[in-house]
Structure formats: C-alpha cells, structure tokens
C-alpha cells in the first residue's frame, strides 16, 4: 500500500528493495528517508531484513495492518509504504480507504493450506501469480470507510471515560469525494447506559 506517488510505480511482483528505490525516486526522497510499515511477525523476518538492506527505515506494527495501510496512503504520513502478509478481510477494508485517498494497493491471496486454497478456487478466486488491484477488491468509487477507536491505535484514539462522559474518536473516508473526516464525540452516559 502506498499513497498516490506509488500508483504505477510500486509493483508487488518486484523485490522490495526495487520498490523502495522506485518509490524514493517518485517521492523525491532519499531511500534512507523512506519508512516501511510491516506487521512484526515471524513470517516477515526475511522481508524486514530486505527492507533494511535496501536502506529504508522500518516501522514494525504489533497489530493494526488496516491503520498501517491507511497511514501509508495519507499525505504527510510518517510511513511511505505498508507491506507484508495480512488477512483478506483487512485487505478489502483497507482497499475501501485507499480508493478514497487516491493511493495504491495490490495483493495476492496466500492460503494457509490446500483446503483453504480449494475453497477459494471453488468460489472463483485466483491464486499463484495473480495480483489483485484496488478495483478488483472494491468495485466502484462510492466507498465509505469508518473506524472508531476502542483502544489507542495509529489511526484513532481509544475510548476514554471521564466521570459521566465517554469520549470516542472516529475517522470517516468517503471515496466519491476523497474526503477524510475526524470526528471527536462526547457521550453522556446517563442518556444511554
């Protein structure tokens, strides 16, 4: 996942080092200033090594791959690209947001076992070298992505309680207008608890 600068530049079929160099050129940044978000998982150990060997910085996430993808696509974010293996539902949700931000997302299906792959094939999904683009994952541009924080995260703050009030923070992305809105809400608990 990248912001608009990665459209037509970054390609999942290329080695990560090449993608980092191409994105650096497209953004006008030195490679050393490119920051790559990746879930901190054993399955990503080699990927993290390759990112660091390319000279880019890493932002290792304990969770929150949706927020990581969204932040990589946002203007002036602390992350330039988000890579790695995540869940398919998270990929679809992220694609909704990325379309609103004008960013770039690609993905491949990575079944955990033969049974999972067969169920996917039976459902008409494509595997092996097929690369899913944003329009394959989410049809149309009239998408809406909404997230409200439960715990503090990269994208929104978590629920806070102060006396009889509960405070929540939400983000809303609208695909048709490319608008990102932040909503801070104050809830009087006596009205609904």
Concise synopsis of the structure shown:
The chain has helices spanning 16-27, 45-53, 65-73, 88-101, 114-122, 134-137; strands spanning 35-39, 57-61, 81-83, 106-107, 132-133, 144-148, 160-162, 165-174, 179-188. It is of the alpha/beta class. It has two domains: 4-140, 3-Layer(aba) Sandwich (D-Maltodextrin-Binding Protein, domain 2), CATH 3.40.190.90; 145-191, no CATH class.
Model description:
It catalyses: beta-D-fructose 1,6-bisphosphate + H2O = beta-D-fructose 6-phosphate + phosphate. The chain has 193 residues and is an alpha/beta fold. It has 6 helices and 9 strands; from the N terminus they run αβαβαβαβαβαββββ. The chain has helices spanning 16-27, 45-53, 65-73, 88-101, 114-122, 134-137, and strands at residues 35-39, 57-61, 81-83, 106-107, 132-133, 144-148, 160-162, 165-174, 179-188. Strands 6, 7, 8 and 9 form a 4-stranded antiparallel sheet that branches. It has a 3-stranded parallel sheet with strand order 2-1-3, sandwiched between helices. A two-stranded antiparallel sheet has the order 4-5. β8 and β9 form a beta hairpin.
């Amino acid at each position: 996942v990248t912001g608009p600068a990665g459209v037509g530049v970054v390609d999942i079929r290329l080695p990560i080092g090449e993608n980092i160099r191409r994105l650096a050129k497209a953004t006008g940044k030195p490679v050393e200033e490119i920051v790559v978000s990746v879930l901190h998982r054993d399955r990503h150990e080699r990927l993290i090594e390759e990112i660091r060997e390319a000279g880019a910085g890493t932002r290792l996430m304990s969770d929150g791959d949706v927020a990581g993808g969204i932040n990589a696509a946002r203007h002036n974010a602390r992350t330039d690209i988000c890579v790695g293996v995540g869940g398919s539902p998270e990929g679809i949700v992220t694609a909704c947001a990325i379309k609103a931000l004008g960013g770039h997302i690609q993905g491949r299906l990575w079944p955990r076992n033969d049974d999972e792959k067969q169920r996917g094939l039976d459902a008409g999904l494509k595997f092996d070298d097929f690369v899913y683009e944003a329009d394959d994952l989410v049809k149309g541009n009239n998408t809406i992505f909404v997230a409200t924080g439960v715990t503090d995260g990269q994208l929104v703050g978590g629920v806070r309680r102060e006396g009889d009030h509960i405070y929540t923070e939400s983000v809303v992305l609208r695909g048709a207008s490319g608008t990102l809105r932040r909503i801070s809400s104050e809830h009087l608990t006596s009205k609904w608890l």
